[in-house]
Every structure is written in structure tokens, then in C-alpha cells.
């Protein structure tokens, strides 16, 4: 592997079966290509988070939708994410700034949801929004390191596990009992009648 810094546009077009003209029709440079690779997946999660923010009835449902779409991105855009995390140090400052704006917008939506959950009394009041938000971002982002398509768990299974872990730690005991949230939690494989 050449890595982003070592690869030429000629090698990119040869490997992708296109032409230099085709490449430069879509991208001004390798730098723009690297930016677009990131923009695909950050735009997806940001759009999904905005949809969850505007369409959900309450913060718990909103957070469940945000986490599910966040986890799903590691399946939909696995090659993009791998390239970005390995090569992002080569991004030019103007592209880095654009990415930072979208990432900040995404982070703010998560923080807003956590604030709303605390204000509504559904999320535990003693859990700080900033640390909780950064924990969710860090925990889910690390998926890119270990997720393998075709593994034992589907991306939907993994999303359900994340939702269960996060909501079980965030929701008040009273909120956990709400009927409409029961589908957000994993079901035990043990038949309670056999205990």
C-alpha cells in the first residue's frame, strides 16, 4: 500500500478503471477526494441525527435512532471510514475545517438530546452531558477498528447492543419501565419460567 501521501492520481485512476479526465471532472485534487470520502459518512450520520431530532416524540426515542444510524455507518461506509482514519492527517486545513464543522454539529445534536433527556426526567440527572456525549461518540466510533461484515453479529445486532448499553446506563428506573421503550432493550435468552 502506498497510502494517501504516496499514491498518485495516475495510480488512483488505473486502480479504479477510470481516466484522469474523469477524475478531474469530479475532484480538483487528491485532497478533495480525501475530503469527499469523509463527507459521505459524516453527512449520512448528520442527516440521520437531524431526522431523529425533528421526528422523534421524546429524547429516548431520538437517542435510540441516533445510535442506530451511527452504528450503521460503519457497515455502509466501512472502506471510506478506514481510509479517512488512516489518512486524515494529510487533509488540507480548509477541508479539515469543513469536517470539524459537521462533526461539531453532530456532537451538538447528541448533547442537545442528552440535555432534553435530563430536562424531561427520563435521563439520570447525575450523569454529565459532556462526558456522556463524548463517551457515546468514543464508544461507537471505535467500531471501525473491530467491525467485520459477515461476522457473528449483524450491524443491526451491534446497534441494538449499543442502544441497550447506553440506555440502560442513562435512563432513570422509572423511564426504563415505560412500555414504549421495551423494544430498545435486549431480551434475555433465559426463559424466566426455568429459573
TrEMBL record:
Protein's name in the database: AcrR family transcriptional regulator
Organism: Peribacillus deserti
Keywords noted in UniProt: DNA-binding, Repressor
Pfam families named in the record: TetR_C_24, TetR_N
UniProt superkingdom: Bacteria
Lineage: Bacteria, Bacillati, Bacillota, Bacilli, Bacillales
DNA-binding region residue numbers: 8-27
Residue ranges of every copy of the HTH tetR-type domain listed in the record: 1-45
Amino acid at each position: 500500500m502506498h497510502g494517501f501521501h504516496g499514491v498518485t492520481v495516475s495510480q488512483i485512476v488505473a486502480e479504479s478503471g477510470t481516466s484522469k479526465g474523469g477524475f478531474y471532472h469530479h475532484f480538483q485534487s487528491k485532497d478533495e477526494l480525501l475530503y469527499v470520502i469523509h463527507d459521505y459518512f459524516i453527512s449520512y450520520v448528520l442527516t440521520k441525527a437531524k431526522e431523529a431530532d425533528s421526528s422523534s416524540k421524546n429524547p429516548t426515542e431520538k437517542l435510540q435512532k441516533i445510535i442506530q444510524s451511527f452504528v450503521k455507518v460503519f457497515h455502509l461506509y466501512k472502506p471510506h471510514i478506514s481510509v479517512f482514519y488512516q489518512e486524515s492527517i494529510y487533509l488540507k486545513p480548509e477541508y479539515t475545517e469543513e469536517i470539524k464543522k459537521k462533526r461539531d454539529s453532530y456532537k451538538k445534536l447528541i448533547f442537545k438530546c442528552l440535555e432534553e433527556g435530563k430536562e424531561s426526567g427520563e435521563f439520570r440527572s447525575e450523569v454529565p452531558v459532556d462526558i456522556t456525549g463524548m463517551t457515546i461518540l468514543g464508544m461507537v466510533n471505535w467500531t471501525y477498528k473491530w467491525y467485520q461484515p459477515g461476522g457473528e453479529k449483524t450491524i443491526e445486532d451491534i446497534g441494538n447492543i449499543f442502544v441497550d448499553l447506553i440506555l440502560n446506563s442513562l435512563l432513570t428506573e422509572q423511564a426504563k419501565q415505560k412500555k414504549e421503550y421495551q423494544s430498545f432493550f435486549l431480551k434475555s435468552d433465559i426463559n424466566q419460567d426455568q429459573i
